[in-house]
Amino acid sequence: MVPEAEIRTYYDKPILKQPVWKWFIPAYFFTGGLAAGSAMLAAGARLRGDRRLARQSRTVALGALGVSTALLIKDLGRPGEPLASARHCSSRTWGVPSASPTCCGSSSPRAP
């Protein structure tokens, strides 16, 4: 049998740091991914002519985008911060301002 390994650290410091993220950061990433995936599904459904799936997917994308935006504002601390951060090309915030008009515009009813 192999003897039990002894865990040692460098200068008695923990190997991993404690995470600094609050619960809403992973939720923000999840809802942002849900919005993106739903928007892509809506685009594919529209190309195939499946209007019902396209409409439902756009609705889910818009809802998830709203939740994601609220979680981002909670993370950054104030409502104007996501737009201010987008000017600096923050990897966490650039997608929300650019996706919002696209998602909202594609959710509006179309004339036949």
Based on helices, strands and strand pairing, what is the structural class?
Answer: mainly alpha
Question: How many DSSP-defined strands?
Answer: 0
In terms of quaternary structure, the protein is: single chain
Question: Helicity, in percent?
Answer: 55-70%
Contiguous helical run count: 4
Can you give the mean pLDDT?
Answer: 78
Helices and strands, in order, run as HHHH
**Strand content of the residues, in percent?**
under 5%
Rg on CA atoms, Å: 21 Å
Q: Give the end-to-end Cα distance, rounded to a whole number of Å.
A: 74 Å
Largest sheet: none
Shape: elongated
Any low-confidence stretches, pLDDT <50, length ≥5? 106-112
Description:
62% of the residues lie in helices and 0% in strands. By secondary structure, it is an all-alpha fold. It has a domain at 22-80 and 89-98. Helix 1 (24-48) runs antiparallel to helix 2 and helix 2 packs antiparallel against helix 4 (95-107). It starts with 23 loop residues before the first helix and ends in a 5-residue tail after the last helix. The relative contact order is 0.13. Residues 106-112 have low confidence and may be disordered.
